Amino acid sequence: MNPGAYALFAWQAGWVFTLRSMQLGTDPVGATAALAEMVAEKQKAFTDGAFAASRAVMNGARMDVVAEAALRPARRRVSANMRALNRKP
After folding, report:
1. Phi, psi of 29, deg, nearest 5
2. Tell me: the pLDDT tens digits for 10-68?
3. Interatomic CA distance for residues 50 and 73, integer angstroms
4. Which residues neighbour 16 within 8 Å (Cβ) at sequence distance 6 or greater?
5. CB 62: neighbour CB atoms within 10 A?
6. Is residue 43 a contact partner of residue 35, using CB atoms and an 8 Å limit?
7. Fewer CB near the last or first residue (10 Å), C or N of the chain?
8. CB of 47 within 8 A of CB of 27?
9. CA dihedral defined by 52, 40, 2, 68, rounded to 10 degrees?
10. How far, in Å, CA of 19 to CA of 81, rounded?
11. In whole angstroms, what separates CA 46 from the centre of its chain?
C-alpha cells in the first residue's frame, strides 16, 4: 500500500471515530446498540486481517503484501463507515 493510502486510512479512521463520538455524546441511550455493533465489527475486521496476514505469510509473501492483507478488512470497514456516516442527515 502506498503512503497516501495509509494516510487516507488514518484520516478516515479518525473522522469515523470523531463522528461516532459526537453521536454518542448527543444521544448516549440511542447509541448503545450502535456501540455493541461497532465493537463487533472491529473484532471481526481484526480477526479477518489476522487470518489474511497468516495466509500471506504461509504463501511466502513479502512483508508489504502481508501488511496490506492484514489491513484490508479494517480499511474496508472504515470506508463503509465513512459512507454510512456521510449519508445520514
Report:
1. -70, -45
2. 999 999 889 888 888 888 887 777 778 888 998 999 999 999 999 999 999 999 999 99
3. 10
4. 78, 81, 82, 85
5. 9
6. no
7. C
8. no
9. -10
10. 10
11. 9
